[in-house]
């Protein structure tokens, strides 16, 4: 077993543990903001660590060239989806208003429904 295999094994283990904690957080946390935190931060970091482990273990530049856009897309879509879920939770009034430090939408006009 080479040193790169050991590095890849450790990275996969840490990444899998981070993804596991994200899944447990989604089940255990009660409100939307804490669930969003659990769904985005540890899951994305765990996924990126697993991608790095795959690149290290396979020793192939085409694999790395494939994994870099995959990781970048994950970095772009996770915060975007969390933002949209949080915004919808605010609009549905499923957020605890007292837990918000700053409510930037309090003075904003309600969104108009422009569907025909």
Automatic annotation (TrEMBL):
Protein name per Swiss-Prot or TrEMBL: Monovalent cation/H(+) antiporter subunit G
Keyword Cell division: no
Keyword match Cell membrane: no
Superkingdom: Bacteria
The family this protein is said to belong to: Belongs to the CPA3 antiporters (TC 2.A.63) subunit G family.
Pfam entry (one): PhaG_MnhG_YufB
Keywords noted in UniProt: Membrane, Transmembrane, Transmembrane helix
TM ranges: 6-27, 39-58
Chain's gene name: mnhG
InterPro entries (alphabetical): PhaG_MnhG_YufB (IPR005133)
């Amino acid at each position: 077993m080479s040193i790169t295999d050991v590095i890849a094994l450790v990275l996969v283990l840490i990444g899998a543990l981070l993804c596991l904690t994200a899944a447990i957080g989604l089940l255990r946390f009660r409100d939307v903001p804490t669930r969003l935190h659990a769904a985005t931060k540890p899951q994305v970091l765990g996924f990126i660590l697993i991608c790095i482990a795959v690149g290290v273990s396979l020793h192939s530049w085409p694999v790395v060239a494939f994994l870099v856009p995959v990781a970048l897309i994950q970095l772009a879509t996770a915060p975007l989806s969390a933002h949209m879920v949080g915004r919808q939770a605010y609009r549905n009034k499923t957020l605890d208003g007292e837990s918000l430090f700053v409510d930037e939408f309090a003075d904003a006009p309600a969104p108009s429904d422009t569907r025909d």
